[in-house]
Amino acid sequence: MPAKTKPPTNNEKLLAWVEEMTTLCKPASVHWCDGSDAEYQVLCDFMVKGGTFTPLNPKLRPGCYLARSHASDVARVEDRTFICAKTKEEAGPNNNWADAAEMRQKLLGFFNGSMAGRTLYVIPFAMGPLASPIAKVGIEITDSPYVVANMRIMTRMGRAVLDKLGASGGFIPCMHSVGAPLKPGQTDAPWPCEPDPQKKYIVHFPDDPSIWSYGSGYGGNALLGKKCLALRIASIVAQREGWLAEHMLILRLTSPQGKKHYIAAAFPSACGKTNLAMMQPTLPGWKVTCLGDDIAWIHVGKDGRFHAMNPETGFFGVAPGTSKHSNPNAMGTFTRNSIFTNVALTPDGDIWWEDMGVPPPAKAIDWEGKDWTPDCGRKAAHPNARFTAPAAQCPVIDPDWENPEGVPLDAILFGGRRATTIPLINEAFDWEHGVFLGSAAGSETTAAALGKAGILRRDPFAMLPFCGYNMGDYLGHWLSFAQRTDRAKLPKMFFVNWFRRSAEGKWLWPGYGDNSRVLKWVCERVEGAGKAVATPIGNVPAPDALDLTGLDMGADSLRELLAVDIAGWKHETGTIAGYYATFGSRLPDALKQKLETLSKGLG
Ligand code: OXD
Ligand code: MN
Q1: Rounded CA gap, 13 and 327, in Å?
Q2: How much distance in Å is there from the Cα of 381 to the middle of ligand 2?
Q3: Are residues 417 and 553 in the same domain?
Q4: Alpha helices (H) along 172-327
Q5: Is 220 in the pocket of ligand 1 (CB under 6 A)?
Q6: Ligand 1, from 69, 74, 76, 216: best to mutate by most atoms within 8 Å of Cβ?
Q7: Where are any strands of DSSP class E within 301-385?
Q8: What is the mean pLDDT of the chain?
């Protein structure tokens, strides 16, 4: 029998499930997480002893740790991610589908004895403030103390959640194992996981709903509150219940006159959501405050407006490229109490990564634990290295970030990383056109998921890896909001592209804090002002409409940035049509019509 702490709950369903999973996984002990500081410290000390965590220099980065993953376990594994809906059609062409009964059998085989020699941790967590009417309670069972420590930063976790659950409350069961049982006397690895990529499984059962994740300890594969629950499962529940679970940051922009606007933005992974979410505007007098950098749950409030809420409590951001220039407020967030994964370790016990804006150390230990020097020809940090940092530590966290009602959205932005064709900003003509723009979003791929980088992939609403059901139905769900509320109360929609390059291949837009210039125009348009030119693709800023005060930008570059490249768009509509065809009859007619109108408009 495994050693157990006394379960701090009388919820029969929960007790029975934990008992059943304990019998299946055969751990050496069971620990119910209370979410306390003391518990967190014990776990960190345990991981330091086992070599999973390296404490950073407490004078430079108090309460911070570095973890290095196994080289095979560095990103989300989309090809090993499954939605076991009743039918393949329900899961859609955007998901890997597997038969639920067969998958359950397979998983029972993998989890049988998978926690031998380890502790089974029970993590009660909530996505969303506990007082929110749309908060969801999950219970993650894991054999990874690294996962427990990260979940404590990323979610509301521990005792208070069990109290909310009470004796009869329901929860979403989330099973996780790194898939590395220990034989008696076997020394543990610093990052145990299943090294065979074909034996990793990230599985969602929409009908339970429940989540089973096996073989990986990394990020979205293992912190099951994030991509699995708050996006894939939540998107399914949201469709059933009439709300939206989205891959979006939430920010507030305040003008020099004190006027506040709330904006949500959907960009694919590693396209700068965290940078925009807590941006430091270069426009004097403007201020951004951050409500979330990755996920927004949106519902129509009593006032008929879209209200957005961040279900998480931390940031799990891409480290390389984060600097005082690109994201000074992220740099100010992970100064303490943070976990760094797969970054480099400097001789003075601090962290370093490529494009951190500080000179490389003369020597370091790289993300694989090897000696590193600037001329060794290897990257010091993995391109998908991450920081896990408490949102409350963000220097510009918004006072309403935990408001259970969320904040009323004025605008929604879509975007992607596109070197050509897509202008800096483009405003949708109406709601259906906005959904069309979002549906056609695409980006050149990055390191956030395993696979080749730099290829254009369509990523509607930046939800391709996260929409838990047929994307055709998802687009229909978005369209339906024009009937769910007064059209005048819907947020305005825009498409942005910070990544356009000149014919010579140079970035045309400085990005980062200068994106405030684009956001200012967004606010002006929301207010019914801001000069725009109607084009076949949408309304683009008039040549003098963007506030470029203090920015050294020639008229030619601005023209190139805002240009509607007719030939490029003709090619674009062809590829959108090809992509749309993959959804067959599930593609809403309204979107086909918008594509046709665009094609005609291009001549
Ligand atoms: C993330 C991602 O980790 O989108 O946020 O991959
Ligand atoms: Mn993300």
Answers
A1: 44
A2: 19
A3: yes
A4: 219-222, 234-241, 273-277
A5: yes
A6: 76
A7: 306-309, 314-318, 339-341, 344-345, 351-352, 364-365, 371-372
A8: 96
Q: What angle do CA 277, 282, 283 make, to 5 degrees?
A: 105
Are 277 and 330 contained in the same domain? no
Q: Whose CA is nearest to atom 1 of ligand 1?
A: 269
User: CA angle, corner 266, sides to 260 and 269, nearest 5?
Assistant: 130
**How far apart (Å, rounded) are the C-alpha atoms in residues 54 and 131?**
36
Residue nearest to atom 2 of ligand 1 (CA): 269
pTM over 0.90: yes
Residue-level pLDDT at 453: 57
| Residues 433-442 pLDDT 10s | 999 999 999 9
Q: Is 68 helix (H, G, I), strand (E, B) or coil?
A: coil
Ligand 1 close to Cβ of residue 315 (< 6 A): no
CA–centroid distance, residue 73 to ligand 1 (Å): 15
Q: Given 174, 271, 290, 523, which residue is catalytic?
A: 271
The confidence score (pLDDT) of residue 444 equals 82
Q: Which amino acid is at 56?
A: L
C-beta neighbour count of 555 within 10 angstroms: 9
Residues 388 and 462 in one domain: no
Q: Are residue 236 and residue 267 in the same domain, yes or no?
A: no
Domain end residue (candidates: 210, 242, 274): 242
Is 271 among the residues known to form the active site?
yes
Cα of 124 vs centre of ligand 2, distance in Å, is 22
- Nearest bound ligand to the CA of residue 78: 1
Co-location of 472 and 582 in the same domain = yes
Q: Is the CB of 76 under 6 A from ligand 1?
A: yes
Residue 508 CB–ligand 1 contact under 6 Å: no
User: Would the CB of 316 count as within 6 Å of ligand 1?
Assistant: yes
- Alpha-carbon Rg for the chain, nearest whole angstrom, is 24
- From the list 544, 492, 547, the residue with the least C-alpha distance to 516 is 547
List strands edge to edge, sheet with 244-246.
244-246, 296-300, 306-309, 407-408
- For the chain, residues with pLDDT lower than 50 are none
Q: Residues within 5 Å of ion ligand 2 by Cβ?
A: 269, 294
Backbone φ and ψ of 42, nearest 5°: -60, -40
User: How far is it, in rounded angstroms, from Cα 313 to Cα 99?
Assistant: 34
Shared domain for 425 and 389, answered yes or no, is no
- Beta bridge partners, 204, equal 83, 211
